[in-house]
Amino acid sequence: MPIDGLGALHRIEGSLTAEKYSEILEYVMIPYAPDGPLPDGDYLFQQDLAPLHTAESVKKLLTDRGVRQLEGIPKGADVSIIEPVWGRIKVALSKEGLHRASAGDLWHVVEAAFNVIKEDTGYVEALRASLPSRIQHVIAAQGGMT
């Protein structure tokens, strides 16, 4: 989560593959920090050990681009402060009852919910402030769920 809030929401078509994820990293995430909130390029990228994140092509891209990463975050570990954001978006989707909605309708609800969350700077800051204690809990659980 960037220092200035939630950053950008990026829509993909179809399923997320390692190739699509690499493109998002290369053309959205990597340029975002120095062009936006971190002009000196000093940031630490966090992702878990989900197979998509650990694909050789993704690891190579991040290494080649000099992206520093927070290493060893287990898949599903409770240090990901973006997970509560996705939880709120899922609640918004369930309230809309969009079981047979088009991709465009789903995107509209996701985007609207994301923007509401993004404007709640107190919530976003609270998530960021919770990171040290989240990390301590995962350490205490020896990398497991907390």
Largest β-sheet summary: 2 strands, parallel
Strand content: under 5%
**Large-scale geometry:** globular
The rounded Rg comes to: 16 Å
Count the strands?
2
User: What is the terminal separation in angstroms?
Assistant: 21 Å
Sequence of secondary-structure elements: HEHEHHHH
| Average predicted local confidence, pLDDT | 84
Regions with little confidence, pLDDT below 50 for 5+ residues = none
Number of helices: 6
Structural class: mainly alpha
**What assembly state would you assign to the polypeptide chains in this entry?**
single chain
Please give the order of strands in the largest beta sheet.
1-2
- Share of helical residues: 40-55%
Structure, briefly:
The chain is mainly α and 146 residues long. The chain has six helices and two strands. The protein is globular, with a radius of gyration of 16 Å.
Features:
single chain, 146 residues, mainly alpha, two-stranded parallel sheet, 2 strands, 53% helix, 3% strand
Give an overview of the whole structure.
- This protein has 146 residues and is mainly α.
- The protein has a domain at 1-75.
- Helices cover 53% and strands 3% of the residues.
- It contains 6 helices and 2 strands, in the order H-E-H-E-H-H-H-H.
- It has helices spanning 18-35, 56-64, 83-96, 103-119, 121-129, 131-140; strands at residues 45-46, 69-70.
- It has a two-stranded parallel sheet with strand order 1-2.
- Strand 1, helix 2 (56-64) and strand 2 form a beta-alpha-beta unit.
- The chain is globular.
- The chain starts with 17 loop residues before the first helix and ends in a 6-residue tail after the last helix.
- The mean pLDDT is 84.
- InterPro entries: RNaseH_sf.
- GO terms for molecular function: nucleic acid binding.
